[in-house]
Design goal:
By secondary structure, the protein is α+β, with helices and mostly antiparallel strands. It is built from five helices and three strands; from the N terminus they run αβααββαα. InterPro entries: HTH_17 (IPR041657).
């Protein structure tokens, strides 16, 4: 059974790196298929292998899906120092 896909708000709340099952859910792909794709090097975005774990950078996942995070005020004005 495939868990329901993540909606836009849920995607934007993800941490910087997610496990492969979460990335698969974001793409509407089953967990087993995601692991098969990762093992064969054909998952649709870069997969990090950390020991026996697979991780996906959320930025890569969002880019693949076509979602951009809104920049924070600090990112929009990097020279600004908050006092």
């Amino acid at each position: 059974m495939i868990a329901s896909a993540l909606n836009r708000d849920e995607l934007l709340q993800l941490p910087a790196v997610v496990d492969l099952a979460t990335a698969a859910r974001a793409l509407g792909v089953g967990r087993t298929k995601a692991y098969d794709l990762a093992k064969s090097g054909t998952f649709p975005c870069p997969v990090l292998r950390i020991g026996t774990s697979y991780r996906v950078r959320t930025a890569d996942l969002l880019k693949l899906i076509g979602i951009e995070r809104q920049k924070t005020d600090r990112e929009n004005h990097p020279d600004r120092t908050d006092r």
